[in-house]
Predict the 3D structure of the following.
Amino acid sequence: MVDIATRVYDHNWKIDPIVRSLIDTDFYKLLMCQSVFRNKRDTRVEFSLINRSTHVPLAHLIDEGELREQLDHIRSLSLNRGESTWLRGNTFYGKRQMFRSDFMEWFENLRLPPYHLERVGDQYELTFEGSWPEVMMWEIPALAVLMELRGRAVLRGMGKFELQVLYARAMTRIWEKIEELRQLDGLRLADFGTRRRHSFLWQDWCVQAMIEGLGGNFVGTSNCRIAMKRDIEAIGTNAHELPMVYAALAEDDEALRKAPYDVLADWQVEHDGNLRIILPDTYGTQGFLDSAPDWLAGWTGIRIDSGDPAKGAEIAINWWRSRGEDPREKMVIFSDGLDTPKIIELHQQFKDRVKLSFGWGTLLTNDFRGFVPDDALAPFSLVCKAVSAGGRPTVKLSDNPNKAMGPAKEVERYKRVFEVGDQTRQEVVV
Amino acid sequence: MVDIATRVYDHNWKIDPIVRSLIDTDFYKLLMCQSVFRNKRDTRVEFSLINRSTHVPLAHLIDEGELREQLDHIRSLSLNRGESTWLRGNTFYGKRQMFRSDFMEWFENLRLPPYHLERVGDQYELTFEGSWPEVMMWEIPALAVLMELRGRAVLRGMGKFELQVLYARAMTRIWEKIEELRQLDGLRLADFGTRRRHSFLWQDWCVQAMIEGLGGNFVGTSNCRIAMKRDIEAIGTNAHELPMVYAALAEDDEALRKAPYDVLADWQVEHDGNLRIILPDTYGTQGFLDSAPDWLAGWTGIRIDSGDPAKGAEIAINWWRSRGEDPREKMVIFSDGLDTPKIIELHQQFKDRVKLSFGWGTLLTNDFRGFVPDDALAPFSLVCKAVSAGGRPTVKLSDNPNKAMGPAKEVERYKRVFEVGDQTRQEVVV
């Protein structure tokens, strides 16, 4: 029987919206947003899309009208009652009322601010300006929209069975990865793949496959909407945008040197336990840890998000030892460009030396490599970053100079202030 | 929106019927049935299930109650109006009114006769007795039911995502085969996979994939129900049961020697063109052709269904030449245990020498090899054959002694009458 009502209702959709909820975003954006709302609410920032994969000509692939429709649709979204109830009532990281009432009231009234879109050559310039807590909420949906529109452009030319086989291949690939991962004793793995996912439905499928395939070894997803829908843990702590904006706001070199620690000082006012995770690489991991105040060694763990991951973990282990901490009590979260072989390798290498966890992103939710001609569905490296704050440019150095950003002169200044010398370049895949 | 009515209606199904239509069967059964109805209508026959793959303990795998429910359901089926209209009105092999009115009236009133089911050790003894045109219609549904029940028994223990990935793998495999086959210039390929299919839905999927992937190089399906549903050609001519029963009915050695040619003499009264296809291997291809009357060399082509296929084709080519026929005007149909590499090899070898066609069976519609532990979904060699006619046992020699059947003494007699010497054994996969 055809459900006529459903069919007629479906006619009413003008577009097929890619992002349908304000909490179809990473959990750490909400944690950071609350922190920013409390501490730097009026800071003016600019976020900008940056396509590191310049060989992908986004403006040729994606129709500007369609892109505007999707972005406009996101601007029409607001938190619905069920989402609000979930954020207010759910337990996150073992804590009730993670989100304070004043923040929730603000969030319930939030509509995302305007965007600026311009075609420049074969790329789009897409920027967002305004107060930090509002603008920052654009990052994940903007990325997800661009990734999915590019995918749709490729899929449009395919037949029904070609499409079915495409997804059959992708499912088979993910399941084979899961079958490998289920061999690992004591694995702890979360989905971090929202921003560069193939599509919402595909990410949701991947999460369900992980639930069935990995059971308790799958610890949750960074995507709030999916965490709510599938009744699993929402996962995430904080990101580079906090030290980048704090650093840009610093009035002089001395304040700049202090900025990354100020971020964490503000953070620990609100969070404890597994939310006290250091992200040390914004201006070089080694220097950050060497100069860190002693209280930071008491934090629960560290997230390794650039550079050689094993090397990053060894630096952290040595640092904890040098501060009299037992690394076996500490958590190390790997989250940079992971795929199965790397996860297995790192798991074997570190499982008995620290508490291990993995945040698996793009190659979980968007591994369509090799499936279509010219590899036109392969994921690529798209980011959306704070590029200025309080009228000054932001800078990121990272442990991988291929991930660095900011004006050359400012980069030099930051390198001097943070005593960052030569770094090893690593190819950025995703 | 949930369609409540559909859901409630679905509650009413006591079983999930495997065969839901009397024309969910091979087209050649209907052609043969009409021929039998005209020429040997009152012949008493017995058909029996034969599991050549004795390592597959069907009675352990399949619940007897479930099997009876499925067989009983088939006995409840009759031709519906749409099916009858299609058989009466459609063009088959370029001919209108392929099925005569008297036959259609009989078919419209047909219900399949009773079955006899008994468990013997770890196998089922399943037999059908009665008049030939009725009993012969059991062959395909009986096989399809047993194959699918065995599959269901294995699938029952699998999780939702495991199942999805299983089908994803199977789809990927078929599509890869199709992608290889589409490279072949002038390929003509039909689906012959009803009897040993994984399931009806899976066969239907495979057919749709072939339509999309191979376009005009996919010439049709042997399955009438799917041919009707998908509006494509129904394909098939005749099978071993005709010479086997005619031979069993022969009163003496002289009549026996003539029997296989009598079958074709009866056949050509009704059929011409691409339906005049010789199936020469029932009692040895070489001997059959050597002793054939000259009029048979005027037939359109030959179907190679046992033995080394290339050798069989060479024998036919030489025979046509010896009878003054041009092999390039003749059709050779390969239909025994085909899979992609063999199809490609035979296509390259014969495409410029004869008109080529392929009937692809089990490894199209049931290639689940290697997907589950113990290869419990791999297809196996199950047949349902006429074992006696007019009170006398039937005999098949084939070009592969592993496919031979009949009482040893009768086999010896047939070998003597048809002058069959030593034969080469070939493994029967499916």
Remarks:
- The longest strand of chain B covers residues 123-131.
- The radius of gyration of chain B is 21 Å.
- Chain B has two domains: 15-156+378-391, 165-365.
